[in-house]
């Protein structure tokens, strides 16, 4: 069965904005899905609802079978979220940042696992560096390491390459590719078609709060008349 089950989800903010309308989607374990849409489409709202950070107006979300509203604690353990903004403790060392996040989830220390995460993100050599000493790309990778600290089954990347240059964008694609090979389920948002095509197995097109279509990437690119 699907690791994430979204049924008839809707969200209307107090301001009256309908950010999500009747969104249904199943996400399988191990797949990489891109939510593609312009600014204001509802992508961040969708991710925030799935992660239990925003309460939906209607519908249900299950993560690993746990209802996000009634069984939030269990669901949350399965989820790692990389937010859009870079927020790191400037004077904290990389290794300690990741250790600390594990603690937030009530997980005991596991430095062997943290080493594995830092190595897979090419951060092991920087483990004793303070985060303020790192480049922008490294900081983004530290955010991913923090999101992976408690061994989630699903990783959410909200606009992982927003405002970064081409080189850094490629670097992020490679990071996602490495995580894919480790079997992590990934849900990312983007407003770049090229990025969705490069990273995802499946693309969901979202606009005005509606999930307009969900297709395997190869099929969708075929419809646009492009080679994949
Ligand atoms: P809720 O449904 O949670 O009551 P509100 O509409 O009351 O949502 O807004 C919650 C918070 O989000 C408020 O602090 C508000 O200022 C802020 N906010 C309102 N509109 C937007 C927007 N378009 N984008 C981001 N934040 C917003
Ligand atoms: P995206 O991530 O695709 O840019 P969002 O989910 O951030 O889209 O926003 C969807 C819609 O909901 C937009 O119209 C946005 O202004 C509105 N919105 C987002 N957050 C809030 C909030 N906290 N309060 C009120 N409106 C919001």
TrEMBL record:
Superkingdom per UniProt: Bacteria
Keywords recorded for this protein, A-Z: ATP-binding, Nucleotide-binding, Transport
Any one GO molecular function term: ATP hydrolysis activity
Signal peptide feature range: none
Parts of the chain that traverse the membrane: none
Domain ABC transporter: 4-228
Protein known as: ABC transporter ATP-binding protein
